[in-house]
Design a protein that fits this description.
The structure holds 2 protein chains of 2 kinds. By secondary structure, chain A is mainly alpha-helical. Chain A has 2 domains: about 70 residues, no CATH class; about 270 residues, Orthogonal Bundle (ABC transporter involved in vitamin B12 uptake, BtuC), CATH 1.10.3470. Chain A has 13 helices and 3 strands. In chain A, strands 1-2-3 form a 3-stranded antiparallel sheet. In chain A, helix 4 packs across helix 11 and helix 7 packs across helix 8. The longest helix of chain A has 30 residues. Chain B is α/β, with parallel strands linked by helices. Chain B folds into 2 domains: about 240 residues, P-loop containing nucleotide triphosphate hydrolases (Rossmann fold, 3-Layer(aba) Sandwich), CATH 3.40.50; about 160 residues, Rossmann fold (3-Layer(aba) Sandwich), CATH 3.40.50. Helix content of chain B is about 35%, strand content about 25%. A 6-stranded mixed sheet of chain B has the order 6-7-8-3-9-10, sandwiched between helices. A 6-stranded mixed sheet of chain B has the order 16-17-18-13-19-20, with helices on both faces. A 4-stranded antiparallel sheet of chain B has the order 2-1-4-5, with helices on one face. In chain B, strand 1 and strand 2 form a beta hairpin. In chain B, helix 3 crosses helix 4, helix 3 packs parallel to helix 5 and helix 14 packs parallel to helix 15. The radius of gyration of chain B is 24 Å and the shape is globular. The chains are: A mainly alpha, B alpha/beta. Chains A and B meet through helix 8 and helix 9 of A and helix 10 and helix 11 of B.
Chain lengths: ~350, ~500
């Protein structure tokens, strides 16, 4: 088997390939469902129904997509500059901590100010977490994959300590959870009697803004250039340190936003299981969308559909919900392979793709 | 003489581009065949097909009368075809011995018989005049020595046909002589040799036969008896080349000065600078000769603001510079054409359009005050660069890596000239370019000189140095010798000073 670089770029192929990958991964999951003893077509029907079948299901998918859009954007912007921020999970909790610290009574503003204020402090908290790490990386070449990843555990244990101690809500009947965010800070529902909240719209607006910044502005251009070739970018007079610093802080801030949407939107208070790995799934979201902010909205919705749908599928046909993780993993792998196919021809024996 | 390699009607296309079109040639035992051609003429593709990196679309290759399986590097190596690549493929942190062992030992073996390998290395070096210390660490070796290691590595596998890709690209005249002795002893031992090059003078000295490629086609073949430089040059480019004429520039006022400049060596630049006093005048091309790795990089980088000197002053227009960043120097009117244009010059994955405006993200014509890029004026800006400097492309949106080296260089230089710089720092600006592109780059720099700009011209090619420069300094071991007027120096003398002997 060998790979040959494609000298010509085919726009049709670059659209077909990812969709082909998604279809391929769905076929793989059919096989898995079959092995698990469930009727594949029927299970798949339950998955779709669970994700889209009723207003409530749709709302649930949207609510689940919200933090994924934000952590996806966090990974997406950082990866564009080849800054491998694996720490969105920790930065999300940092944002959630900020929401708990400032939003549970310390500061009281009218709603139209309180919500932006919470996003501001949440973003700052996420950025602050990443700031020392990006400085270490730019000055001393300390590998950010390691530092951002390990920072997740530091922050999670710190949150655990706070929730068991100083920040524990005295009204929580002994559960380790933070106090509730005050009413002015809570993100209002956008569908009555569902969990879909304003955070969903905010996430989409943020994604669109980011898309405009990345594709239309000099700053976005510099990020792209730094990511592809830092040396040539430096030679062209663009400061690397500053550019990567801003990108990393922006990435941390976006993950911090996700902490706000979960604390002030979905749950109302901080718990240790606030995020079932949204920070890590965000990486898959970003990869699936080839780091494009608009694509990230859709890939977040797609993954949210699988997770939410898999919950109801598992109830209906009695298969483990972990199948959702497997499907997501296969999808991401197939999409990554399909991206290779866009750039390379694969040849096995006499067969050419 | 027995025929060693027979290439029969090889064709290979990449998309619409016919990189090789029905090429046939042969190499006999004990024969040196040179493959000449511009960049993009298909030389490297052809060699990669022979060596098994690429599959040809049609045609066959015979080695010693037998067909060899195409597209199989391992088979090519086993049959006795060896290739010395232009860019060295050595692990810098390992010793010579270890580097040679890596390529020739089974990965699954338990132990490596270093004694036996060392013995063989000594034997090969003796036989072919490739003196190198097997225990030395590769990063400590000079370019010439590294090349010798590459050749030993190739000969180690009992090869019978050696392909040398641009072997003289960065050697001193003395090192070239030594390499040629090695090549002669190789053919004396019955090996066949293919040399890929674009340096006509050297090729005429060494080869028995020359074949010329142009646009993927074989345009000519010439035996030693009929060698004729000017008709070969024409075969290569398809038209007559008008070299720039030697004339002296008009020296104007001093634009840059370095006083007592010192840079200690560090990881980023293994060779520092010691006690550099240097002046750069407008209207003059100041050539710097030297084997690469003698401090030229640090010298160029400090003059372009990429590096801060440990000691000493740098003055631009008589003013002492305090801030050493590329941007600050750009704003002072310095343009820096880096040595490695594909890694430091352009962002290969990005479009020509993007690369053309990479230096202009602060230019109000390109990005408005809110930071939004103006696509229309960018397109106009880059279109002008390409037109003024004869950059040939299919579309401004194509990835820049698809351009030939010459077009990349013209795009880069054009981008800098658009900023109307007063001082141009050019590092090896013609290295690896074909004849046509070399001449256009030289002419561009001469034009700037005639406009009164100061040009620093760092090169390893002495013919070019003498052709283009008005004054010449020589760099060795982090120190600068000179300046000398170009007509006061012999090529031979420069060669000696480049190696530290014969300081005038």
């Amino acid at each position: 088997m060998r790979l040959e670089v494609r000298e010509t770029y085919s726009p049709a192929l670059s659209i077909i390939a990812p969709f082909g990958a998604i279809i391929f991964s769905l076929l793989c999951s059919f096989v898995l469902l079959f092995i698990a003893g469930a009727p594949p077509i029927e299970s798949f029907f339950y998955l779709i129904k669970g994700a889209f079948g009723s207003p409530n299901a749709l709302a649930e998918t949207g609510a689940r997509a919200t933090p994924l859009i934000l952590t996806g954007l966090a990974a997406g912007i950082a990866f564009r500059a080849k800054f491998w921020n694996i720490g969105a999970e920790g930065q999300l909790y940092a944002g959630a901590l900020a929401a708990t610290f400032f939003g549970t009574g310390l500061i009281n503003l009218p709603q139209f100010l309180m919500i932006p204020f919470l996003f501001l402090v949440g973003g700052l908290a996420g950025a602050l977490v990443i700031l020392p790490l990006v400085i270490l990386r730019q000055l001393y070449k300390v590998d950010e994959v390691v530092t951002t990843l390990l920072m997740n555990f530091v922050i999670l244990l710190f949150v655990s300590y706070l929730l068991e101690g100083p920040m524990k809500d005295p009204m929580s009947l002994g559960w380790p959870q933070g106090s509730s965010v005050i009413d002015n800070g809570v993100l209002p529902q956008i569908l009555e009697r569902t969990r879909l909240h304003l955070g969903f719209l905010i996430a989409i607006v943020v994604a669109i803004c980011l898309w405009v910044i990345l594709s239309r502005t000099a700053f976005g251009f510099r990020i792209k250039s730094v990511g592809h070739n830092p040396a040539a970018t430096y030679h062209a007079g663009i400061p690397l340190f500053k550019t990567v610093l801003v990108v990393a802080c922006l990435s941390g801030a976006l993950a911090g936003f996700a902490g706000i949407t979960e604390t002030a939107g979905l749950k109302g208070y901080l718990t240790l299981d606030l995020s079932p790995g949204f920070g890590y799934t965000g990486i898959a979201v970003a990869m699936l969308a080839a780091l494009n902010p608009i694509g990230i909205i859709f890939s977040a919705l797609f993954l949210a559909m699988i997770y939410v749908g898999a919950d109801s599928m598992s109830r209906a046909v009695n298969v483990p919900t972990y199948l959702a993780d497997v499907v997501v993993a296969i999808t991401v792998l197939s999409v990554l392979v399909s991206l290779i196919l866009i750039n390379y021809k694969i040849q096995i024996g006499k067969l050419k793709f | 003489m027995h025929s060693l390699l027979e290439v029969e009607s090889i064709s290979k296309s990449f998309g619409d581009l016919a990189a090789n079109n029905d090429i046939s040639f042969s190499v006999s035992e004990g024969e040196i065949v040179a493959v000449l051609g511009e960049n993009g003429a298909g030389k490297t593709t052809l060699m990669n097909i022979i060596f098994g990196h690429y599959l040809p679309d049609s045609g066959s290759i015979k080695f010693k009368g037998e067909k060899i399986p195409v597209g199989n590097t391992r088979a090519a190596i086993n049959l006795g075809i060896g290739m010395v690549h232009q860019h060295f493929t050595l692990a810098e942190n390992l010793s010579v011995l270890e580097n040679i062992a890596i390529g020739n030992q089974s990965l699954l073996g338990f132990s490596i018989d270093f004694k036996q390998i060392e013995h063989r290395i000594t034997k090969i070096s003796g036989e072919f005049g490739l003196s190198v210390d097997p225990r030395a660490i590769v990063s400590d070796l000079s370019i010439g020595e590294k090349q010798r290691v590459e050749i030993i590595k190739t000969l180690f596998g009992d090869c019978e046909l050696v392909i040398l890709d641009e072997p003289t690209a960065s050697l001193t005249p003395q090192e070239v002589d030594q390499l040629f002795l090695t090549i002669r002893s190789m053919v004396k031992a019955g090996l066949g040799v293919i040399i890929i090059s674009h340096k006509l003078d050297e090729i005429l000295r060494i080869s028995d036969r020359i074949i010329v490629l142009r646009n993927g086609k074989l345009t000519g073949s010439m035996d030693k008896a009929n060698f004729d430089k000017s008709s070969l040059a024409e075969m290569i480019v398809g038209k007559k080349i008008e070299r720039p004429e030697k004339n002296k520039g008009k020296k104007a006022e001093k634009l840059m000065e370095l006083i007592g400049l010192n840079i200690s060596s560090n990881i980023g630049s293994p060779m520092g600078l010691s006690d550099i006093n240097f002046e750069l005048f407008g209207g003059e091309i100041h050539g710097i000769a030297g084997v690469s790795g003698n401090g030229q990089r640090a010298f160029a980088e400090v003059m372009a603001g990429h590096m801060r000197p440990d000691l000493g002053d740098l003055l631009i227009n008589g003013k002492r510079v305090k801030k050493f960043t590329p941007r600050a120097f750009m704003d002072e009117g310095v343009a820096y054409i880096p040595e490695d244009r594909t890694s430091d010059g352009v962002v290969g994955e990005l479009s020509i359009l993007d690369n053309g405006v990479l230096t202009e993200t602060k230019n109000p014509k390109i990005a408005n005050r809110f930071g939004f890029l103006n696509k229309k004026s960018s397109t106009k800006f880059v279109g002008e660069i390409c037109e003024e400097n004869d950059v040939r492309f299919q579309s401004l949106n194509q990835p820049t890596r698809l351009l030939s080296g010459g077009n990349i260089q013209k795009l880069l230089i054009g981008r800098w000239l658009k900023r109307n710089p007063e001082i141009i720092i050019a590092c090896q600006p013609t290295r690896g370019l074909d004849e046509g592109a070399i001449v256009s780059v030289q002419k561009l720099l001469l034009e700037e000189r005639d406009k009164g700009k100061a040009v620093l011209f760092i090169t390893e090619d002495l013919d070019e140095l003498l052709l283009v420069s008005d004054v010449i300094s020589i760099m060795f071991d982090g120190k600068l010798m000179g300046p000398y007027d170009y007509d006061k120096l012999e090529k031979r003398e420069i060669g000696l000073m480049m190696t530290g002997s014969g300081i005038l």
